[in-house]
Amino acid sequence: MKHSRWILPIIVISQFFCTSLWFASNAIISDLTSVFSLPQHAVGHLTSAVQFGFICGTFIFALLTIVDRFSPSRIFFISAVLGSFFNFALIYDKNTFISLLIFRFLTGFFLAGIYPVGMKIASDYFEKGLGKSLGFLVGALVLGTAFPHFLQGFSIELSWTTVLHSTSLIALLGGLLMVLFVKDGPYRTKNTKLDMSGFISVFTNKKFRAAAFGYFGHMWELYAFWTFIPIMLVGYKTLHPSTNINVSFWSFLIIGLGGFACILGGYLSTKYGAKKMASIALLLSCCCCLLSPLLFYTNSYIFLSFLVFWGLVVIADSPLFSTLVAKNAPSVNRGTALTIVNCLGFAITIVSIQLISFLLDKVHIQFLLTILAIGPIIGLSYLYKRNSEH
Q1: Closest by CA position to 17, among listed 104, 80, 109
Q2: What are the residues whose beta carbons fall under 8 Å from the beta carbon of 259, sequence distance 6 or more?
Q3: More confident: 33 or 205
Q4: What tens digit of pLDDT does each residue of 187-213 get?
């Protein structure tokens, strides 16, 4: 297409800027805990509030088929503005734990107009090579997720509010870039009527269903792993007091490098197929879950290298499953299909995050993430049991 050379970079940059809102509170959790006297398990609850907001947002967007009926770029922009506002609201000095949860919920709600909508916009522009395009897009999500950890890791001398100022500002910029420079794509099929059954009817397709359940297994592991990376690093430091680990920097590195795995997976999918590459990544991350207890007894170089590898394979399959979902959804309901799959996938993340939060003071730290293997096992089983070659 005529504008394809600059359209994808703008979509990717906008996605990166806006998804920096996602883990903003995780990067500054120690400061929030101190300033607002939060309970011990605040990190799990605040993360789940974002996830729950995202779930509610995606459900409403899908139920009303908003993304298929209105301009995706405008939806993206409005969501970026409102998400930025509620992220910035964490700075309010009269906040309580409840108000922080509400603000994180609302931030998550409007992220529903950013992440799946960004994938919808990309699919409207890049019908061929969609796996590669979504690899870049999900890579941007990963870097955006890791960005608050980067700010915290390298801005030790600055106030924690700088992280919130920065993420809110660049999210606004991302929304502006999208609405000003990315119009409706040439492959967009507009749905002119409200179809409240659209988010259910897409599951009647066997191939779509198999891809969706593979994605659900992947999501059981992904966000719980990201959420508890700092906890794992601190746990390792506790077991090895002489170890000097910059928790924020390594959290950024472990999460952020996954963005490059998404891009590489996207390129490899053009040669070997999205299903095959997604299955390999899901199998490798499952092995990491099961082997993780042993790594706490190794030296810091092996431990950190293992977490970096896990960070690569845990996300590499995400754009590939989204590609399979998009390809097997009817074009008129593609936006709704991507949105409802995201909705259900993120609902699953709440269960796994809350389960690990519950087990945090009941299970020894090195065994904490082994339970995440359940998701990849089920995902792989469903993917191949359905014999869905895409």
Answers
A1: 80
A2: 138, 139, 140, 141, 142, 143, 146, 315
A3: 33
A4: 777 665 655 555 566 777 788 888 899
Q: Binning pLDDT at 50, 70 and 90, where does residue 390 land? A: very low
> What are the distances in angstroms from CA 344 to CA 24, 200, 303, 347, 351?
23, 12, 32, 5, 11
pLDDT at 300: 93
From CA 280, how far away is CA 285, in angstroms rounded?
A: 9
Contact 103, 90 (CB under 8 A): yes
* Tokens found for residue 390: 């895409």
Q: Exposed, middle or buried, 94 (CB in 10 Å: 0-12/13-18/19+)?
A: exposed
- 366: how many CB neighbours lie within 10 A of its CB? 17
Distances (CA, A) of 24 to 10, 114, 138, 158, 383: 22, 16, 18, 15, 34
Per-residue pLDDT reduced to its tens digit, 295-348: 999 999 999 999 999 999 999 999 999 888 888 877 767 777 887 888 899 889
The alpha carbon dihedral of 163, 344, 349, 104 has a sign of: positive
Give the C-alpha separation, 35 to 186, whole Å: 49
φ/ψ of residue 292, rounded to 5: -55, -35
- Separation in Å, CA 219 to CA 216, 250, 282, 372: 5, 22, 10, 10
- Dmax over Cα atoms in the chain, in whole Å? 63
Amino acid code (one letter) for 255: I
Across residues 339-358, what is the average pLDDT?
A: 88
Report pLDDT for 388: 45
* Of the candidates 45, 101, 83, 388, the residue with the CA atom closest to the CA atom of residue 227: 45
For residues 116 and 336, give the distance between their C-alpha atoms in angstroms, rounded to a whole number.
Answer: 9
pLDDT score of 389 more than 50: no
Q: pTM of the prediction?
A: 0.80
For every residue of 60-95, DSSP letters joined together read HHHHTTHHHHS-HHHHHHHHHHHHHHHHHGGG-TT-
